[in-house]
Amino acid sequence: MTMPAPTRASTPTSEGYNFAYLDEQTKRMIRRAILKAVAIPGYQVPFAGREMPLPYGWGTGGIQVTAAVIGPKDVLKVIDQGADDTTNAVSIRRFFARTAGVATTEATREATLIQTRHRIPELPLNERQILVYQVPIPEPLRWMEPRETETRKMHALEEYGVMHVKLYEDIARFGRIATSYNYPVRVDGRYLMSPSPTPKFDNPKMDRMAALQLFGAGREKRIYAVPPYTEVKSLDFDDHPFEVQSWDQPCALCGATDSYLDEVITDDRGGRMFVCSDTDHCRRRRDAQEEAAQ
Amino acid sequence: MTTPASLPATGQATAEPPRAPLPADLPEDGLLAVRDLTVRYGRRLGCAEVTFDLWPGEVLGIVGESGSGKTTLLNALTGRVAIDGGRRLYAVPADDGGGWVDLDTLSEPKRRLLMRRDWGIVHQHPRDGLRLAVSAGANIGEPLMALGARHYGDIRSQALGWLDKVEIAPERIDDLPRTFSGGMQQRLQIARNLVTGPRLVFMDEPTGGLDVSVQARLLDLVRGLVDEMGLAAVIVTHDLAVARLLAHRLMVMKEGRVVESGLTDQVLDDPHHPYTQLLVSSVLQV
């Protein structure tokens, strides 16, 4: 079996670590899992997840997938809740800057590899980009069926009817499908998949996305994937079709009406504003507005 | 009613284990046939060499004292315990091709689909058969959704219809089953099992743990539904009064074996086996 040439360690900035922290054997093992995941869209492939120098729940799955696919020429962007400057994003970006010596960026357009938690960038991604998700609970059926042996069987036999019970409960209680994040999807008409805790606002972006989407769950040691241009359909009822969130005001900073907005509390007297959750998107729009004004 | 999902096309013939020839004595118009069914728990016997046939619309009662193997037999029939010997055969409906299939050599997807669509299982404890964390409506709707119903309004109206049939007030549709009384939970469980229009229902002590007036109402309800829907049922009970009210035929079990079987009246009014005589004479006459 011919393996690709080992990734060349290009003057790592941290002494004593292999390129991108993981050893080459581990990366191969993860790449094999990724190849299988890409071959069976939406199927959860088990892999021998390693201990990483950060706690479970902080992105150990995503970071291992990133380490396995990153190359010296990659430009890395890390998103946490849409922002590039939050703790998780800053520390993972610095981790790869130090262990792999790769270039990092906050601009979606420049990045070749994007690791994300909770958001998909507003800017449509292209074929040369890879999106890596951090996943806390990969099993979408877990809420209805606690037994792992049973959920595997349900996936194998496509017994997905029970997933609609959760949506039924939403409508019965709130009059609409109130599930707003981690909204279950069907990939390529076959596997039921959890899109990780991204808001359902981002679900339509996953459908036929040009970029490769990889999902890594560190605690549960599962990898799954959506290859480029694959159909991703959100579950719904015939008389309650899938719909995304909307806001009755634009972003307070850039005026965008088509992006996902975060509510920010500005004082202790009830002051609040709605701003783009995707900080790069917001900044790009404001820069463009300034340029146009000059 | 939703249209029942059809069986998936037969897969590669190589995927299924070689079939033993069907027994020669299968009734032509039967529904379920069991031959020499045996279950062992290690060296102890669960039930041994149980043989019976069941016809559409017929209610078979299985009676016997605690530990006589009644529930083991029911669990073996519904595939929840592995069997150590014997055959379980089921006659698939005519619109699925008809004919007898051996449940132990049927492929798993087909067996699970059959059980979801054609069978219902009413557990002794409602909490085993209900999802306590979701509303009554969702509990009734789940089997429909499992068979492909995707219209919220339809599912809801069927759930309301069934709540009415089992005498639960319609405004309780969005309440959690844990806020229901034991009798209501049991009726909800029955509704959940019958909503898909099954052909065969298994009931394990359906009236266990209910007070007598509630028992009477539940029995009336079950008897009415069985008549109305032309259901076949296998009912396990230790209560001979329940057996007399519901069952057309009885099997009496003792130490894992069937010691006597026949028409209900015949078994209860003219018991032959000493154990059946003991059982019948132990009932308090009020």
Low-confidence runs of chain B: 10-14
- End-to-end span of chain A in angstroms? 60 Å
Range of helix content of chain A: 25-40%
- What is CATH's topology name of the largest domain in chain A? Rossmann fold
Q: Can you tell me the CATH architecture of the domain at 32-128 and 200-283 in chain B?
A: 3-Layer(aba) Sandwich
Largest β sheet strand count, sense and barrel closure of chain A? 7 strands, mixed
How would you describe the shape of chain B?
globular
> How many beta-strand runs of chain B?
10
CATH-defined superfamily of the largest domain in chain A: Bacterial phosphonate metabolism protein PhnH
CATH class designation of the domain at 32-128 and 200-283 in chain B? Alpha Beta
- Residues in helix, % of chain B: 25-40%
> Could you give the order of the helices and strands of chain B?
EEEHEEHEHHHHEHEHEEHH
How would you sum up this structure, described in words?
The complex is a heterodimer of chains A (294) and B (286). Chain A folds into two domains: 7-140 and 180-234, Bacterial phosphonate metabolism protein PhnH (Rossmann fold, 3-Layer(aba) Sandwich), CATH 3.40.50.11310; 246-294. In chain A, the strands form three sheets. In chain A, strands 1-9-8-5-4-2-3 form a seven-stranded mixed β-sheet. By secondary structure, chain A is of the alpha/beta class. Chain A has helices at residues 24-39, 60-69, 87-99, 148-156, 163-174, 203-206, 279-293, and strands spanning 45-46, 75-80, 103-104, 113-117, 130-134, 185-187, 191-193, 212-217, 222-226, 232-234, 261-265, 272-276. Mean pLDDT of chain A is 92; it is low at 1-12. In chain A, 44% of the residues are buried. Chain A has seven helices and twelve strands. Helices cover 27% and strands 17% of the residues of chain A. Chain A starts with 23 loop residues before the first helix and ends with a helix. In chain A, helix 1 packs across helix 2 (60-69). Chain B has 286 residues and is an alpha/beta fold. Chain B is 35% helix and 22% strand. Chain B is built from ten helices and ten strands. In chain B, strands 6-7-8-3-9-10 form a six-stranded mixed β-sheet, sandwiched between helices. In chain B, strands 2-1-4-5 form a four-stranded antiparallel β-sheet, covered by helices on one side. Chain B is globular, with a radius of gyration of 19 Å. Chain B starts with 31 loop residues before the first strand and ends in a 5-residue tail after the last helix. The model of chain B is unreliable at 10-14 (pLDDT under 50). Chain A binds chain B through residues 144, 153, 157, 159, 161-162, 164-166, 168-169, 171-173, 237-240, and chain B through 108-109, 112, 131, 134-135, 137-138, 141-142, 145-148, 150-153, 155-156, 173-174.
